[in-house]
Write a structure and sequence with these properties.
The protein is α+β, with helices and mostly antiparallel strands. 37% of the residues lie in helices and 38% in strands. The protein has a single domain, classed as Nuclear Transport Factor 2, Chain: A (Roll). It has a six-stranded mixed sheet, with helices on both faces. The longest helix has 23 residues. The protein is globular and about 50 Å long. The N and C termini lie far apart (34 Å). This is DUF4440 domain-containing protein. InterPro entries: DUF4440, NTF2-like_dom_sf.
Amino acid sequence: MKRLLTLTALLLLALAGIAQPKPNKKDLAAQQEVETLERQRFEAQVKKDYAFLEKVFADDLVYTHSNGKQNGKPDYIQSIRDGKSQYDKIDVEALNVRAYNDGKAAVVNGTITITLPNKPDGTANVAHLKYVVVQVKDKQKGWQVVLWQSQKQAS
């Protein structure tokens, strides 16, 4: 049910973007904030900065990996602690942020290249992903990721 509500919210945000001709000053400021936070979040995932990740992931986070596996906030952060989700490097290839509702919500899409630990045979382990993120701005907590969805890019 939560996933359906999140996906419905994403669809509504996308439809709102069709009707919104130009971003206002609050939306433009939000776009810059969210872009910076996205880059910081990727860095925090590599550095295992759990305090930062706890702050930027909403309690009702829906995190869908490129293989279809889905986590909530506690499970995803624990997967990094346990080494199930390991990131040696995350390179942002493209990043597009659209903000809505006077800078209170944002939809991000982009492409990243993730360098993972080498495979057991020593060969490089690299993933090229397209992704979508929905962030909302909480009055007390600031920007928080409520939805992450990724898919592998065709080679």
